[in-house]
Write a structure and sequence with these properties.
The protein is of the alpha+beta class. It has 3 domains: about 30 residues, no CATH class; about 325 residues, no CATH class; about 110 residues, Immunoglobulins (Immunoglobulin-like, Sandwich), CATH 2.60.40.10. Helix content is about 45%, strand content about 20%. The protein has 18 helices and 16 strands. Strands 8, 9, 10, 12 and 14 form a 5-stranded antiparallel sheet that branches. A 4-stranded antiparallel sheet has the order 13-11-15-16, with no helix packed on it. The longest helix has 26 residues. The chain starts with about 40 loop residues before the first helix and ends with a strand. Keywords: 4Fe-4S, Electron transport, Iron, Iron-sulfur, Membrane, Metal-binding, Transmembrane, Transmembrane helix, Transport. It holds the Pfam family Fer4_5. This is Cytochrome c oxidase accessory protein CcoG.
Length: about 475
């Protein structure tokens, strides 16, 4: 049910003249399907370059082998993340935090410079909508043909066109869900299970959930995700200013709009370069009119620029009626590249860029200095301290060693901090690639050394170094305490 339109009243309380031009706004208006028209041009080519790049990366990485295992695998069961030669454990959560901070500052930086570049070229919603629209064009034709097909009755031709389109959409969506799960379960194992439908319950859930989410978002919801569900559209304005590059319509050049021929005298007709063809609206995936100015629904896909440039070429008029420009440049009618570069190099962008470079450098340096060995010392609570043969004091410890390298390692254990303390009957500690193991060891202290220390807790250090010739040298020290009984 829709609400009644509100009309402004005149001086006497009756609808006045302003009511004639008042815009009716329905509170519960049904969604009108957007039929984007296909477009060719320089920016459209770049969008497809990004589609190919992102999808080859997404679909290809799980199949890439590295040292006999998947190159990229998030093994939640074993609590290990494999990124080529890099092996991360839950204790490396700090690197995920750093990656999120890098992503956030990268988003701030590129948004301050070029607006919604992420949305227009690399966002999964944009990429999969572009793919699904391409499939729709192949089955149902161009914009006019699709509108006619939807408005017409159900026939055999409409059934096979619609059915073929949805079958292709489902195939792409399910393959996307399958690939997504392939980042958490080795995809070759998953592929073998697919022939017998022998997936585990969680594998079934995520293949179907991610696949159906892709099918629904890219096939049906499309621009609604960008307009109503994505939070980025709402807070992007906080990162925009009058020197941010955005998709802009040159009103000084284009207005007043009017249809005219290629060789018409525009001054005599009192019209601008815009011939009001409406192509910029027809190609827009969110269905907006860029000539109305900057709008939060604009995802900066630049389809309107390609469409308008094509019209300008046919009208033998210079390109750029719709173009990337800053609001200040548009106001001053200065859009030369050198001027734009000077406007882009402003304090906000420089600060974002400097912070991004510093965090990136610190992140890479931390990864390079990261030790391939992780150690955790836990005292054996069942036996804090005991006296063994020859009166020696013995404490029992449990050491968890995690090999964060892709090669087998052997470590020597040394005890420091307690004069005379030795590790009883323990040889080198061996670990397989990416293996985590618990070792139980006893540290013994001669009675004369214990008498010199006195009873109570005393600091002790466990020092682990690689055996000679190891491919991933490690030198790790972990602190604990040694208990001397009364």
């Amino acid at each position: 049910m829709s609400a009644s339109p509100i009309q402004p009243a005149g001086p006497t309380g009756t609808p006045g003249a302003a009511a004639k031009s008042a815009r009716v706004v329905w509170l519960y208006e049904s969604h009108k399907k957007v039929y984007p028209r296909s477009v060719k041009g320089w920016f459209a080519s770049w969008r497809w370059v990004m589609v190919w790049f992102t999808q080859l990366l997404f679909y290809g990485l799980p199949w890439l082998s590295w040292n006999g295992r998947p190159a990229v695998l998030f093994d939640l069961g074993a609590r290990r993340f494999y990124l080529f030669d890099l092996i991360l454990y839950p204790q490396d959560f700090i690197y995920l935090t750093g990656l999120l901070i890098l992503s956030a500052y990268g988003l701030f930086f590129f948004t301050a410079v070029g607006g919604r570049l992420w949305c227009g070229y690399a966002c999964p919603q944009t990429v999969y909508t572009e793919i699904f629209l391409w499939v729709e064009h192949k089955f149902e034709g161009e914009r006019g043909a699709r509108m006619k097909l939807d408005a017409g009755p159900w026939t055999a031709e409409k059934l096979w066109r619609k059915g073929g389109k949805h079958a292709a959409w489902l195939a792409i969506a399910l393959w996307t869900g399958f690939t997504f799960v392939g980042y958490f379960t080795p995809i070759r194992t998953l592929w073998a299970e697919a022939f017998t439908l022998d997936f585990g319950p969680w594998e079934w859930f995520w293949v179907l959930f991610y696949g159906l989410a892709t099918y629904g978002n890219a096939g049906f919801m499309r621009e609604q995700v960008c307009k109503y569900m994505c939070p980025y559209a709402r807070f992007q304005s906080a990162m925009f200013d009058h020197d941010t590059l955005i998709v802009s319509y040159d009103q000084q050049r284009g207005e007043p709009r009017g249809k005219h021929g290629r060789d018409a005298d525009k001054a005599k007709l009192n019209v601008g370069d815009c011939i009001d063809c409406g192509l910029c609206v027809q190609v827009c995936p969110t269905g907006i009119d860029i000539r109305d100015g900057l709008q939060y629904e604009c995802i900066a896909c630049t389809a309107c620029i390609d469409a308008c440039n094509g019209v300008m070429d046919k009208m033998r008029t210079p390109r750029g009626l719709i173009r990337y420009a800053t609001q200040n440049a548009m106001a001053l009618d200065r859009h030369q590249p050198a001027t734009l570069l000077r406007r882009i190099a402003r304090p906000r962008v420089l600060v974002y860029g400097a912070v991004l470079v510093l965090i990136s450098g610190a992140f890479v340096f931390s990864l390079m200095q990261r030790s391939p060995l992780k150690v955790d010392v836990v005292r054996d609570r069942t036996s804090l301290a005991r006296i063994v043969e020859d009166g020696r004091i013995e404490n029992v410890y449990r050491l968890q060693l995690m090999n964060a390298s892709a090669e087998p390692q052997r470590y020597r254990l040394q005890v420091a901090g307690l004069p005379g303390a030795v590790v009883a009957d323990h040889g080198p500690l061996a670990l397989a690639p990416a293996e985590a193991r618990w070792f139980v060891l006893q540290v013994q202290l001669p009675p004369e050394a214990a008498q010199g220390l006195g009873s109570g807790a005393h600091p002790v250090q466990f020092h682990l170094v690689n055996e000679p010739g190891s491919s991933a040298p490690a030198d790790v020290t972990e602190k604990s305490t040694f208990i001397v009984p009364r």
